[in-house]
Design a protein that fits this description.
- This protein has 65 residues and is an alpha+beta fold.
- It is built from 2 helices and 4 strands.
- A 4-stranded antiparallel beta sheet has the order 2-3-1-4.
- A hairpin with a 4-residue loop joins strand 2 and strand 3.
- The protein is globular, with a radius of gyration of 10 Å.
């Protein structure tokens, strides 16, 4: 299980936006975003480049801490 810190989330809509963005990346599964902790956890079925994960989060309007 991988964990990344995400800055800028403030509500359930934010959680859904980040979840959808990460779910679109081929190779990630079991994506869970925690608003209180400000983080996302996921499993990699195959390696996914960190910059692709960062780009997906940034396109959703948030920053990877």
């Amino acid at each position: 299980m991988e964990t990344i810190k995400i800055k800028g989330m403030s509500c359930g809509h934010c959680v859904m936006a980040v979840t959808k963005a990460l779910m679109k990346l081929e190779g990630l599964k079991n994506v869970q975003v925690n608003l209180e902790k400000g983080e996302a956890t996921f499993e990699e079925e195959k390696p996914v480049a960190a910059n692709l994960i960062r780009e997906a989060v940034e396109k959703a309007g948030f920053d990877v801490a």
